[in-house]
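Per reviewer request, we include the raw input and output of the structure prediction for the construct analysed in the revised manuscript.
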Amino acid sequence: GATDAVGLSMSMGEMEDPEVKGKKKRGRPGKQASNKKPRKSPTDKSVGVTRGRGKANGVAQHNGDGGDPVTLFEVVKLGKSAMQSVVDEWIESYKQDRDLALLDLINFFIQCSGCKGTVRIEMFRNMQNAEIIRKMTEEFDEDSGDYPLTMPGPMWKKFRYNFCEFICVLIRQCQYSIIYDEYMMDTVISLLTGLSDSQVRAFRHTSTLAAMKLMTALVNVALNLSIHQDNTQRQYEAERNKIAGKRANEKLELLLQKRKELQENQDEIENMMNSIFKGIFVHRYRDAIAEIRAICIEEIGVWMKMYSDAFLNDSYLKYVGWTLHDRDRIVSMTLDKEYDVAVEAIRLVTLILQGSEDALSNEDCENVYHLVYSAHRPVAVAAGEFLHRKLFSRHDPQAEEALAKRRGRSSPNGNLIRMLVLFFLESELHEHAAYLVDSLWESSQELLKDWECMTELLLEEPVQGEEMLSDRQESALIELMVCTIRQAAEAHPPVGRGTGKRVLTAKERKTQIDDKNKLTEHFIMALPMLLSKYQADSEKVANLLQIPQYFDLDVYSAGRMEKHLDALLKQIRLVVEKHIETDVLEACSKTYSILCSEEYTIMNRVDIARSQLIDEMTDRFAHSVEELLQEAEEADDDDIYNVLSTLKRLTAFHNAHDLTRWDLFGSCYRLLKAGIEQGSMPEQIAVQALQCSHYSILWQLVKITEGVPSKYYNDYGDIIKETLSKTRQTDKILCAKTLILSLQQLFNELLQDQGPNLDRTSSHVSGIKELARRFALTFGLDQIKTREAVATLHKDGIEFAFKYQNPRGPEFPPINLAFLEVLSEFSSKLIRQDKKTVHSYLEKFMSESMSERREDVWLPLISYRNSLLTGGDEDHMSVTSGSSSKTGSVRSKKGRPPLHKKRIEEESSVEGSWMMRNDTLQTPGALQTPQLTSTVLRENRPAEHMPDPDSEPGSENDFVHNPQMQMSWLGQQKMEEVNRKDRTGMNYIKSRSNQGVRQTVRGLMEDDAEPIFEDVMMSSRGQLEDMNEEFEDTMVIDLPPSRNRRERAELRPDFFDSAAMIEDESGFSMPMF
């Protein structure tokens, strides 16, 4: 009827939405349209748009650059005025001219959306809402997606608060008159409904927030009206129930009229809320933008809490249910690639679990369980909280404590620890015990620090009602217990979790100290008993021996607990005598090293025990070596086992302890020499002897680099140098691998001491670089002889540098990247052609972003690349056309240089010839790969197929026919380059030449006639002669001038070095140590 004819005009979005299209328009029930004051529909209004400064409402406006702010947007943004006074001023302007005031309000919402346009008064009366929104859309800055609600910074954060407060205060101040005039609210709701349906995110976001806050303010008004209605109804009924003589009929009439007005106002407010809810909420609660959805769901919760009688029913609860009903989606979001999303999803699932344990299936829970092993710590910690609430929280602490006392247990956590062990075993990720402990550390710390309960389960027999732990469960419990000890003592996450060591707060530091004292006092007494029980089990013993490194060793002397120290040393000695497993022996060695620290008073006691043990093992080793060498080929398994077992123990100790005064090197040298001469030494003994000798050499190097004089250096310095020299002669590549492995070991030890953030200017790093420089000098001046060994050394160094990625993400350098600075010391030993190969191999490990980084942490990579690029682009064959050959150095078959000159060119270009063989594959006249044949067939060839008599024997053909040579690393890298170039060069070559280019070989032999398999060369003379004969009409190949003299000068060592001198094979003396 007439009531339905008066109401809120629809925006374009409302007219297109089927849910809103047929809704009833607002109007006061019982009022006729003819009695209402005529008003304009918002859809009949029109707008005009200007940019920047201009006139709004027909008067000049300031944008805030000078003078006082005059627009609502500027006032609210600055927030300098009380919001109530701002709203009161607007109400006064509305009473004077409501169109101009509404235009201010419309421009307020437009500008709050980040739009630069301004609605003008002359356009307000002529354009419809759809045109308003369309023209406002055109005024957006397309270059920026930011708008006030999303801009960072405290000013814009405050703006959001001021924006919401303005809307709330506006409704509160207008609730008694203006909101019922059927003009202001109709216009505002119509505008916000249209903006919320816009494709522009800024309009949609801002208008939805405004509409939801407007709705919240109206709910508050409706609640107040409801309260007033209830009070008026009670007053009316009380007055009506009075006797006729005391009843005041006028008061009844007033109460009745007041109740009627309140009801009309209530209906009017409900119509407004209905318009907002159906026109905006039902569409935006499922918006594609999460922030918009969150605004809707947050506000409907406020309405339910504020006015539960009206909103806490199925008509509104269903929207919350529809948002949350997809449990599978929520669980799957715990695996979201955005870690922040995953963390919030896990927390939501945890809240669901708190509300109802039956809400999640076992499968749902298992999907969250495994996230405790995530490398991203916030995700893992959130999953740990979920796991704690599901499995490890005590439901009835008092009953559990009473049960533990009846069973004679000191702690009620026994069952929970058993459950933790079962969970760890069932997860089948046993190498990640540290991750599991770290995930549960914040939520289950009381359980994880109950070391008394853990040792009780391991040492004592199960009481009635308890099951005995299986061997597998005992191993898992010991591993978990050691991880909890580490976490408590170090107070930081394990490697791979977190961003490195951070500075602890005073509270955290105090907790760390207390925990360390607690675990020390407990395990000083418990550890010997645990070792005694499990001394036959290598896995358990290796884990238990990790515990002493976390002790506060001062407790031994301060608490007068030396007898427990003696018990520990006795058990460690028994373990050493019982086991030959490497991990167990290394754990024992490390424990002795820790207990022998000079800063503790127990050092002397432990040093005596250690020396006694080494003395006995050394005597046993020397005796068993004598027996083995005497028996020679008649040695039985017992003789071999006696030597091997003792040598394994001594090698493990030599890794962490300086045992040079026991002269282990001499016995190991005798074993190795006998093995070489007789050829019957068991491989395991040879390996252990080499390892022990390796440690002896390293200890000597440590003393030298630290500047500590050693009386043993004069005795064994020559032996060490001779060993390196002989090793280099036997196998240059293995010698190079040994050198780089030594440097890697020193670098790893430095990382363990200082953490991933190395100080590259420290003396320790400089010491490693200095050692690398001295190692580099051992390769001598003849780069051709050592080219494969040096290249292999670089290959291993590059792989080590990029072996472990930074847990903080790919934008941070790999953990070992600083090792490239050490590796740079060997770059000068690469010939220029091989620098290209090594540089190409380095680029395989680099991402695009790495090559662009210039921060200090990336300097090792920059420095190493520069060392490879220096001189790396100069050695190439210059191929010019026939027309340019007239001015170049032309050598044809009619004008060949004398033989002796060609030989000099061979010598001068020997460093570039191997690379040239590959480079020519991309130019006309490339060499064809020689056919591979056996040595016997090659020797029986006719004379025309033999190499040129002037060329030297060996090298390339020896290389390609020798199975030891075919898989060299440089060969593999060059073959990859050849295969790539073949695709672009060979077809062209074949089309230009039907005759193959004859290949000859040129061999390089060392002074002692030892074949150098690393040298992959070709005969420059024969090659160039045939190439000129074949292609003299089409191309000229200019060899680069000799650089041997210059390069040798560059590589000449400092002969004035005061260090000891080592004699190179070629006769040059160079400093080494």
